[in-house]
Amino acid sequence: MSRQGTRGVDPRKVNGELFTLTYGALVAQLLRDYEDDDEVNKQLEKMGYNIGVRLIEDFLARNNSSRCNDFRETAEIISKVGFKMYLGITPVVSNWSPAGDEFSLLIENNPLADFVELPPGHNNLNFSNLLCGVLKGALEMVQMDVDVRFVQDQLKGDNITELRLKFLRRLEDAIPVGED
């Protein structure tokens, strides 16, 4: 009996491609179920939010970085650690607002968009809107209320994929009613 050879195959690459294909099937199913780009965008963001709420615990457990002091430091950790850890990419942090409360993540090669072409008639679909939800959910768990949205998308013919994050406010730790 011989063993199947798996030498030379990076399991992370295989897992990444499997995730990409599975994600594409999920988006296709949502398009069939909702038939409306805006509703699909909402569903993807909601799913991403739920992932982000849970993902932050894994991120904090696996990463030994201390609490970020400001939004700039948070942006660097998101780009250089978070995206690298979970998607194997490092987006460029760019386009800071003068107030320092808003920045862009520029993604040259979006792994969620590998093997993807937007179907005709779905120009309002933000295929990778899951990322917006993940960022919003994860940052909310570390007491940061942010707005995350797509500005540019390579799937729509832009040169780069750009996510824009805007810090809205710091959330206060709240103790549930009846607990001290």
TrEMBL record:
Keyword Transport: yes
Entry keyword set: Endoplasmic reticulum, ER-Golgi transport, Golgi apparatus, Lipoprotein, Palmitate, Transport
Compartments in which it is found: Endoplasmic reticulum; Golgi apparatus, cis-Golgi network
Gene Ontology cellular-component annotations: endoplasmic reticulum; Golgi apparatus; TRAPP complex
Superkingdom, natural source: Eukaryota
InterPro entries cross-referenced by the UniProt entry: Bet3 (IPR016721), NO_sig/Golgi_transp_ligand-bd (IPR024096), TRAPP_component (IPR007194)
Major site of localization recorded for this protein: endoplasmic reticulum
An example Gene Ontology biological process: Golgi vesicle transport
Pfam family, one: TRAPP
UniProt key word Transmembrane: no
Subunit relationships: Homodimer.
Cited function: May play a role in vesicular transport from endoplasmic reticulum to Golgi.
Family: Belongs to the TRAPP small subunits family. BET3 subfamily.
Protein name: Trafficking protein particle complex subunit
Organism in which the protein naturally occurs: Mytilus coruscus (Sea mussel)
Organismal lineage: Eukaryota, Metazoa, Spiralia, Lophotrochozoa, Mollusca
